[in-house]
Design goal:
- The chain is of the alpha+beta class and 161 residues long.
- It has one domain.
- Helix content is 47%, strand content 22%.
- It has a five-stranded antiparallel sheet with strand order 3-2-4-1-5, with helices on both faces.
- β2 and β3 form a beta hairpin.
- It is globular, with a radius of gyration of 15 Å.
Length: 161
Amino acid sequence: MTTFTAWKFDSIDGADRAADTLKQVRSEGLVKVEDHAVLTWPADADRPDVKYEHRDDARAAGWGAFWGVLFGALFFLPLIGAAAGAAISLLNKRMNNVGITREQLERIGKEVGPGNSALFVVTSDRDLDRMAERFRGHEATLIATNLVAAEAAELRQAFDA
């Protein structure tokens, strides 16, 4: 099953450090990373910086569109009043098919802001128990996932330890 997760870090470099761990976990064969993106938002910046990693050139355009729609609607459009609701509605229609709910999108938009960072990951074929061991010590908040409740609790526990 393909899984989307979004993690918020209270530091600018937290998501980069977790992405390095993710790359290590991937190289050990504990997870297949379809793609991931790191968002950093310096406290004095108007907008975040986003880095994508497209591992599969054949599907890079598809992932670029996915991340573009997600981040564009949440962080780069002028989200004021009715425009915010319209952007979230459009994004919800696109993301609903991959198991990302409107509530999760709204939470991502509210939680991620100046002074922090976030790691967005699309994975498949994972070993959650062994992955959790590698992520202990990364202080993060799971802000969105399409995992079932027991799997999400397992991931939260790994980052909270």
